Amino acid sequence: MRKQINSALQGLVRNHKAKRVLLWDRSAFIKVVRIRLHDIIRVKLHERATEVSKEHQNLFHFGHLYVDQVPLAQSHWQPGSAIQNDHSAVPFHVQDISSLIASHRQVRYTLLTGTFGIGKTSAVLQAARRQDAQIIHVAAHQIEISHGSGGTNHLMTHIAASLDLLDDFSPDTSEILRNVCGAALANALKQQAENPFVLVVDGLDEHSFYGTSQGLQWLSNQLAELRCPIILTTRREHFFTLFGNYGLALDNLSRKGGASRVIELWELGAWDVKQALQLLDLAKGCRPHLSVQIDALAHSLQDSNTYLASALLAHPLFMQMVLDLIVDGQLWETRNADDIIDMWIRQKILRDLRSPRLTIGSEMDVLAYVDTMMQIMQEAALRMAQHEDGTLDEKELAKILSSYPELDGCSTAQLMATSLLIPVGRRRNSGLRIKFFHRQILEFFVQKERS
């Protein structure tokens, strides 16, 4: 039979109906397809990372600028033992986080945290664009809720689809290759020997299922068979609020698939004046005609008498917003400090609402939602002002929240996802203390009530 098939195939060549013919059995065919798909994956990773990076950069006039040396705290956790990393005792050192992400590491699992807008996604995308790295960057929100019902191959199939790995093929061919591509991606990430890939699931807090306790457990089961380094990113607020659930999920990951029982914990720290000035120098290089205004901003950063605390002004998100004001011709230095803070808070909330995160009050008018958030934060600030340490118990925040019927069903974790309220530290037993992202934000809301 094989000779007859080969003879018929050669006849196609002789009759000029084909230039070349090959006879493969099913396993040989799948092997060749997988090799080809591996090549496609490598090429597409960099293309996709570049596209997503551009989309991310377009949020600001200077969104394309990147400061590589930033504060980072690193610690290790052995599941089954207490996590020592409360990020109060662990020192921060200035490092190139994107290079750390891109480099091959012996530790299989890493959790990268940081406050909102501190640069987690920027660092991952910067690393993914490097030609010497094979980083699979997956925005968590691109994985649909229904994906939680499948195993590793099922998850990989939809990750492959989210990365547009087959968009160069015709629709019919893409449909045929879709399941094969998922299996090929899973196969590539299951390689035992010196796996060249790094899988990054970015923004767990932005996923309505994986950001929950059940979802974290499910994700750990889906990832357990993989042998490549895996980096999970989430906001520091989300990590501390669901600390126990992250502990269970990471413990589950470390026990399966023969993984090393050491997990790396990374936290991106707050920028200081040095990082902020580096960003401003880069901005001046792009827009020399704005040097006078940018120099004035740099002076404010270094002036202890400035009306905005340098630690607040140096925050990357705040800095980008102020630079946008300069580019748009709105001289920020002539504005009242409270006006700038009010604008920044509202812009931050709107930024959260633009993300695919499951947000509270999703059926409300956007501006009404922002106003409601401002009211809740003001009430929280007044209660915090009554405490010596300027913090609030989670139960007190829940009580404030319950007085807003339009936010019925909202949890304090969801509230913190779109506000400037953050946990003081990780949850201990059932207790969680909450504060404002920066002391000046607390003072802003207290003063607003008194004026």
Write up what this structure looks like.
With 451 residues, the protein is α/β, with parallel strands linked by helices. It folds into two domains: 36-268, P-loop containing nucleotide triphosphate hydrolases (Rossmann fold, 3-Layer(aba) Sandwich), CATH 3.40.50.300; 336-450, Arc Repressor Mutant, subunit A (Orthogonal Bundle), CATH 1.10.10. Helices cover 50% and strands 12% of the residues. It has 18 helices and ten strands. The strands form two sheets. The protein has a seven-stranded mixed beta sheet with strand order 2-1-7-3-6-5-4, sandwiched between helices. The radius of gyration is 25 Å and the shape is elongated.
Properties at a glance:
451 residues, Rossmann fold, 18 helices, elongated
Topology, pairings included?
Layout: H1 2-14, H2 26-57, E1 69-77, E2 93-96, H3 97-102, E3 109-114, H4 120-128, E4 134-139, H5 152-162, H6 171-189, E5 197-202, H7 213-223, E6 230-235, H8 236-241, H9 243-255, E7 263-268, H10 273-286, H11 291-302, H12 310-313, H13 316-327, H14 337-354, H15 366-384, E8 392-393, H16 394-402, H17 412-417, E9 421-423, E10 433-436, H18 439-450
Parallel strand pairs: 3-6, 3-7, 4-5, 5-6
Antiparallel strand pairs: 1-2, 1-7, 8-10, 9-10
Helix pairs in contact: 2-4, 2-6, 5-6, 7-9, 10-11, 14-15, 15-18
